[in-house]
Specification:
Layout (H helix, E strand, L loop, with lengths): L2 H14 L8 H32 L3 H9 L3 H7 L4 H9 L7 H6 L8 H12 L4 H10 L2 H4 L11 H10 L23 E2 L14 E2 L9 E3 L10 E3 H16 L4 E5 L4 H15 L1 H7 L13 E6 L11 H9 L5 E5 L4 H4 L4 E7 L4 H8 L3 H9 L11 H12 L1
Parallel strand pairs: 1-2
Antiparallel strand pairs: 3-4, 5-6, 6-8, 7-8
Helix pairs in contact: 3-5, 7-18, 12-13
């Protein structure tokens, strides 16, 4: 074979060879780089946020719990930290809507659903979070509840100082303060559902002038002075109570009952002219603001015991212990005048129903407080806790 033929053959062989593949190395490492980047994108921010949380005072275990509860952003944005808050987070018992309470109180402070309900009620009444943390950090549940009835306190510290100063004197269950925190009739609202058995009428809530119960009935003179009228349900309960008390040896009768708007107006004006405004407000109340207009209130007198003070009679002792079984509560107990805004009257009982009365009695709250805490409607539904919390709070208060 000539040299020329060899050269041609060599060229033909070169043409038939397949081109060499070159592996692109970056395609091999790209998935690894992506995985690393994804891990870093997750772990670096987590590490940074965990570091910031620890800087606030939390442990890593607490930081993990905060993350599990979805509270990282909230905690960091507000700089929230207290030992009490950290303990509740770690224990898994935190109620996130009430974080300010944990911030304001010492470790070991126990909050129950009644505290959370009270907090929500005060928030609904217009109190700010800083005011509420001051109140709950300084006072006890029983000392805060009256604020639901009293006027809004712009400077809650004055109230706090007064309550603490009077705490020893009120240790027996009374609530008497040095200062006044309510101006009569300043805030006036129409009574919610005037015909309801649990209606509240006081210095804030009034009945319209044309309101008169449709089921008024005259009470038999066997257990009442002539002319006494009550709503049928209350009258039947009162008669049953009088009869059964008599069977046990306690004789008393109804000495005061329903009065209409005009009668109350005349009575108020009489005392206003003869005894002054304060006496008239405490003893009678302006027209529309008296519970006698509800037809659910009755005054009792002992048949045979001749004491000036009804509270000294055995009949009063029996009523105090048993009236709730028949649906009645003592409406204006002694030592609670700063809350009820009426003079104490041991002879005055209000019918609220056989189911509600034992609860009010067990709560040791005035009816004003009980109603504002558990029965009142909400100004802003967003402030209302879950129904289950309200039910639990009621059990805690009444059991």
């Amino acid at each position: 074979m000539s040299e020329a033929d060899k050269t041609v053959k060599k060229k033909n062989m070169q043409k038939k060879r397949k081109p060499r593949r070159r592996v692109r190395w970056w395609l091999l490492i790209l998935p690894v780089v992506i995985v690393i980047a994804l891990i870093a994108a997750f772990r670096i921010p987590k590490a940074l946020s965990d570091s910031k949380v620890r800087q606030l005072g939390y442990t890593q275990q607490e930081a993990d719990a905060i993350r599990e509860m979805g509270l990282i952003d909230l905690i960091l944005e507000n700089g929230y930290y207290s030992r009490h808050l950290a303990d509740e987070i770690l224990a898994g018992t935190l109620k996130r809507n009430y974080i300010p309470l944990y911030l304001a109180t010492d470790p070991g402070t126990e909050f129950t659903d009644r505290d959370f309900l009270l907090y929500s009620r005060l928030l609904d009444a217009g109190y700010e979070e800083d005011q509420l943390t001051n109140l709950f950090g300084s006072l006890r549940f029983r000392e805060i509840v009256p604020l639901l009835v009293l006027d809004y306190q712009w400077n809650e510290q004055i109230y706090i100082d007064d309550v603490i100063a009077c705490r020893e004197n009120n240790a027996g269950g009374t609530f008497v303060l040095e200062n006044s925190y309510h101006q009569f009739y300043r805030m006036k609202y129409p009574a919610e559902n005037p015909a309801a058995v649990d209606v509240l009428v006081n210095k804030n809530y009034y009945l319209p002038g044309n309101y008169s119960p449709s089921d008024l009935t005259e009470v038999t003179t066997e257990y009442a002075v002539d002319g006494m009228r009550l709503r049928k349900e209350a009258a039947n309960a009162a008669l049953k109570m009088c009869r059964e008390a008599l069977d046990e040896g306690y004789a008393f009768f109804i000495s005061g009952s329903y009065q209409d708007y005009v009668s109350i107006k005349k009575l108020y004006e009489y005392y206003l002219s003869n005894r002054g405004e304060l006496f008239a407000d405490l003893e009678v109340g302006k027209e529309g603001f008296s519970e006698f207009q509800t037809g659910l209130s009755a005054s009792f007198a002992a048949t045979y015991e001749k004491y000036e003070d009804f509270s000294e009679t055995e009949c009063y002792q029996w009523l105090s212990e048993n009236a709730q079984k028949y649906g009645f509560i003592e409406r204006y107990p002694e030592g609670m005048e700063d809350i009820t805004l009426c003079a104490a009257d041991p002879s005055y009982f209000r019918y609220v129903g056989k189911e509600l009365a034992p609860k009010v009695k067990a709560s040791s709250l005035t009816y004003d407080e009980y109603w504002c805490l558990l029965l009142k409607g909400w100004e802003n539904e967003s402030n209302k806790p879950a129904d289950s919390m309200i039910e639990n709070a009621e059990k805690e208060i009444t059991e």
